[in-house]
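HUMAN: Spend a minute on the protein record below and explain its fold to me.
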Amino acid sequence: MTDTRTTPEGQRPEGQRPAVPDGPEGHESDGRSTLPDQRDDAVADAVRGNWVDRLAPARSRPYLRLSRLDRPIGTWLLLLPCWWGLTLAMLHDGNARWEDLWILTGCGLGAILMRGAGCTWNDITDRDIDGSVARTASRPIPSGQVSAKQALAWAIAQSLTAFLILLTFNVPAILLGVLALLPVAIYPFAKRFTWWPQIFLGIAFNWGALLAWTAHAGQVHAPAVLLYLAGMAWTLFYDTIYAHQDKEDDALIGVKSTARLFGDTATPRWLAWFLVATVTLMGFAVIGAVPRGEILMLVLAIGGPWAMGWHLMWQLRRLKLDDNDRLLSLFRSNRNAGLIPVLFFAMALFA
C-alpha cells in the first residue's frame, strides 16, 4: 500500500495529487491504472478493461468499485496470512480435519468481504478529498454514483455477511474476528498522526494468521504470534515499496509514510531489515510449530520462509525508487511471495 493509501492503482498524470490513502483494503490495484475509455461512468484510476466495467450490471458497478472487486491484489495480501496460520496450525498438532477445508474457504470469502468493507470505509472517510482530485473524483461517492449513506449501508452489509461466516468458527476465533474491527477502523487515519502507518496496516492485514490458527486449534499459541509478527514485517516491506510511488504528492498534502520517513537513501537498508525480520520470525514460528523429531516435516516447512526470503531479496535487487512502474510491479509480486510459505507448509503436511 502506500503511504497509506493502500490502493496500488497505478500511475497518475504528472503533477496530479493523490487521494488520501485507501485502507486495509488497499493493495487493491492489480495493474497499471489508465484512464478508462470503455464506459462513461468508469473510475479514472481503475484498471482498463476490468471485469466490473465490462460485465457487471450497471446498477451494481458503483458498489463493486467501492469494494475494489476489480483489483484482487488486496484480497490476496489479506488472505495469505490466514492460510499461513491454518497450515502451520495443522502442522503443529498433526490433525488435519475436513472442517479445515471450510476454514480455508471461509477465510477466502471473509477476505473478499472485509477487504471490500474496508475499502468502502476508506472511500467514505476520504470522500471530500477524493472529490477535489482529478484522479479520484470519478470514484463512486465523489462522482455522485452513490451517496455516503448508501456506501455506509454497503459497508455494513459486507461486514455483516462476513460476520455470518465468522460465526461458523469456534468461539475464540469469533472473538478475535470481532476484535479485528478495531485496527481496521483506525488504519485509515493512521497516516495523519504517525510516520509509521504501515504498522497499523500490518496489524490489520495479518490478523488472519491469528484467527485461522485459532479457528483450527481453539487457542492462540506462541508460533501463531511469531507468524503474525512475521506478517507485519512483510507488510512493512511491501507497503514501503508501494508508498514510494506517491511520496512527493504525499508531502504536499501532509500524508505520512515510511517512504517519506526513510527517504530514498535509507529505504533499501530498512527494506533489508524488514526482509530479515520476516524470514527470522517466520522461521522461529515454524521451529516452534513443528513437533520434535519430525525432521523431514521441519526441513520442508522451514523452506517456506527460506524461499520467501529469496523472493524478497529478488525484489530488493530490482528496486528502483524513481521508477513507478517497477515499484508497482514489485508490490504486486508479493502475492507470489506470500504464496510460497503456503505451498511449503502444505507439502510438509504430507511428510
In short: The two ends are 36 Å apart (CA to CA). The domain at 51-349 is CATH 1.10.357.140 (Tetracycline Repressor; domain 2). The chain has one domain: 51-349. The first helix runs from residue 51 to 55.
